[in-house]
Design brief:
Bound molecules: adenosine-5'-diphosphate
Number of strands: 23
Structural class: alpha+beta
Strand order of the largest sheet: 1-4-5-6-2-3
Strand content: 15-25%
Largest sheet: 6 strands, antiparallel
Helix content: 40-55%
Shape: rod-shaped
CATH topology of the largest domain: Beta-Lactamase
Distance between the termini: 85 Å
Mean pLDDT: 85
CATH class of the largest domain: Alpha Beta
CATH superfamily of the largest domain: PAS domain
CATH architecture of the largest domain: 2-Layer Sandwich
Number of domains: 5
Length: about 650
């Protein structure tokens, strides 16, 4: 870049002598001029005195030492001093220190050359900043004195200086500056053209300006320039310029036309980086707008700078309403946990990210739950410049959670109530069955005594009544025994042990298929697992199921097949018989206490066996159910929880 040259005030020789022969050591002074000096040196007649004072130029008469001998009014004004105070004072005391050397050279030259000499210096002035002056100096009185004629050139100096500043701006500016003629040829360009586009100044100056414009932007640019020549004022537009390496840079222009001078003056700013950022932002905004979640960008203090459409949908606000507002203004509502807000505040303060669930309220006051993720955004120096908040609406999830929680509470309450009533029932059953046995025994034994001792006295009808009574007492005894058994089945974890079902079923086989009365059972089962269970209860379970399989038979040979499979949490067992089967409408009823499907004459029983099975299975963390086809047989399924 061209360095601005410091303006030098130089001693310049009289133009009359410029280009002439070298100044002679002994100045040749024409006779006529010498006469003129004599006249000047002589006391001025009164009529010229006024002319001398009122002259716009300042005049000083100095002796050879530079002492002021005389001066006119304009001269005193130039220094802002009283005329009389300057007489016999050194003239150079009024010269700006930085120009003293110039004046010294000039002053010596007046006397050594004897010809009219000039210089430009700054004079001090008591009332204003420096006054820039042009001084012509001429010797007088046989070279013993000299006269200085001084003209104020401050205005010209200022104008020159301003022009210089403008030139400096032109040279130093980081923007593109140029002027082109009406045909689009460059007249002048500043160094930024070379720096930004990579071309040499010559390569640019010899091209038509349109050649440097991206082909897609040429029409629009030419359109702008055509309008410019017709309209007045500054026109702003953007286009892309071609760089020497083949890439393009985005430039924003301010252009003005001077039609009379056939000139267009343009100043362009390289906005490529800004455009790239805008482009990136546009893409990010597109992505952010596609998501159903709300996205908020804030500065490092939490002031909202951008929101997506998801934010509008979730909160009911639009960006214009929230721009520049602190994000916490949207959190301070009754109902939002203060603890959570304090936590988020601390994250903002410590410039840290976090993820938290939060109850918030939309513009119309409706509450919604969000899962908020706060991510700090960092610049190249790893400094946090802002935050990104991603808010996911989890209101539905929260509702389900709350409903489940309430349901669980209800279930727990009901379970507690059931346990209580079960315990009461069991207590009652135990007490009842225990206490009822004694009077029952009395009825039974007295009935037997009655028959034994008084049978001959009884007629057939009386005997039949007694038989009914004995039978009723027997059944009641059975009922009481079963009820007692039912009430005794309880959860005693201490009795849980590794139970080998192979052994257990072998015992069953002995009981049910061995010699004895009634139908003998054919029991088929594969290799069985070893389970952690209350052995005697599991035995009772199989006993009841196998007993029923034998009891509820239409044909002679009862066959039971047992199978099992291992599931993640349980063992599943199947007990399939070839009995009379059960109608689907009774599938659930049969597991309820005292529920029977047959009269005692058909099949004996108390309706407690399967209720006991259900109780045992549930105590082992499982469930029991039946699948059956009437006349074909039934399969009882039950599960036993594995214990890790
Ligand atoms: P009980 O056998 O004493 O009547 P349970 O509780 O053992 O009582 O059985 C309830 C009812 O379920 C029985 O009355 C019977 O009608 C039916 N039932 C049970 N097991 C079978 C089976 N294997 N086949 C068909 N019906 C059955």
């Amino acid at each position: 870049m061209k360095k601005p040259q410091k303006k030098q005030l130089k001693v310049v020789e009289d133009s009359m002598n410029k280009g002439g022969s070298k100044p002679a050591k002994q100045p040749h002074v024409p006779a006529q001029e010498n006469d003129h000096r004599e006249i000047l040196n002589a006391p001025l007649p009164e009529k010229y005195k006024e002319l001398y004072d009122l002259s716009p130029s300042g005049y000083f008469t100095l002796d050879k030492q530079g002492v002021i001998l005389d001066l006119n009014l304009s001269a005193a004004l130039l220094l802002g001093k009283d005329r009389s105070s300057l007489i016999n004072q050194s003239f150079s005391a009024n010269i700006a220190e930085s120009h003293l050397d110039i004046f010294q050279v000039f002053f010596e030259k007046i006397f050594t050359t004897g010809v009219k000499t000039c210089c430009e210096v700054a004079l001090k002035n008591d009332f204003k900043p420096f006054v820039f002056v042009h001084i012509d100096g001429t010797v007088l009185s046989k070279a013993e004195q000299c006269v200085l004629a001084i003209a104020d050139i401050t205005a010209r100096h200022k104008a020159e200086n301003e022009l210089k500043v403008k030139q400096d701006i032109f040279e130093l500016s980081l923007d593109l500056h140029c002027s082109t003629d009406g045909n689009g040829f460059f007249k002048i360009i500043n160094p930024s053209w070379t720096r930004i586009l990579g071309w040499t100044a010559e390569e640019i100056m010899t091209r038509h300006s349109t050649n440097l414009i991206h082909p897609d932007d040429r029409d629009s640019t030419l359109g702008v320039k055509r309008n410019l020549l017709q309209a007045s004022g500054i026109v702003n537009f953007e286009n892309r310029l071609l760089c020497k390496d083949g890439t393009h840079r985005w430039i924003e222009w301010n252009v003005v036309a001077n039609t009379t001078e056939d000139t267009i003056v343009s100043v362009g700013r390289d906005i490529t980086e800004r455009k790239q950022v805008e482009d990136e932002n546009r893409k990010l905004a597109m992505i952010a707008n596609l998501t159903v979640n709300a996205v908020i960008l804030t500065d490092s203090d939490g002031l909202i700078q951008w929101t997506n459409e998801g934010f509008d949908r979730l909160t009911g606000y639009d960006f214009n309403e929230v721009q520049g507002i602190n994000v916490f203004n949207f959190l301070v509502r009754s109902g939002t946990s203060q603890e959570v807000i304090l936590y988020i505040r601390s994250c903002f303060k410590n410039k840290k990210g976090c993820r938290i669930e939060l109850l918030n309220f939309n513009k119309s006051g409706t509450a919604y739950w969000v899962d908020v993720e706060i991510v700090p955004m960092k610049d190249n120096d790893n400094l946090v410049t802002g935050f990104m908040l991603l808010e996911k609406d989890i209101t539905e999830k929260k509702k389900t959670e709350t409903a489940l929680l309430n349901q669980n509470e209800d279930l727990n309450k009901r379970a507690e109530e059931l346990t209580l009533s079960n315990e009461e029932l069991e207590r009652f059953a135990y007490v009842a069955s225990h206490d009822l046995q004694e009077p029952l025994r009395m009825i039974s034994s007295f009935m037997q005594l009655l028959i034994r001792n008084y049978e001959p006295l009884l007629d057939e009808k009386a005997r039949e009544y007694v038989r009914y009574a004995v039978d009723g007492a027997d059944r009641m005894k059975m009922l009481i025994m079963d009820l007692l058994e039912y009430s005794r089945v309880g959860l005693n974890k201490d009795l849980f042990q590794q139970t080998d079902l192979n052994e257990l079923l072998q015992e069953m086989d002995v009981i049910f298929s061995g010699p004895g009365e009634g139908h003998r059972l054919i029991l088929q089962y594969p290799a069985m697992p070893v389970i952690f269970a209350n052995r005697s209860q599991v035995m009772q379970l199989f006993q009841n199921l196998l007993g029923n399989a034998i009891k509820y038979q239409a044909i002679d040979q009862p066959i039971v097949q047992i199978s099992w499979e291992e599931q993640p949490q349980h063992y599943l067992f199947r007990v399939t018989d070839n009995g009379i089967g059960i109608a689907p409408k009774y599938f659930e009823k049969i597991f309820v206490l005292f529920q029977r499907l047959h009269v005692k004459e058909e099949y004996s029983g108390t309706g407690i066996g399967l209720a006991i099975c259900k109780k045992i299975v549930e105590l082992h963390g499982g469930t029991i159910w039946v699948e059956s086809t009437e006349g074909e047989g039934s399969t009882f399924f039950f599960t036993i929880r594995k214990v890790a």
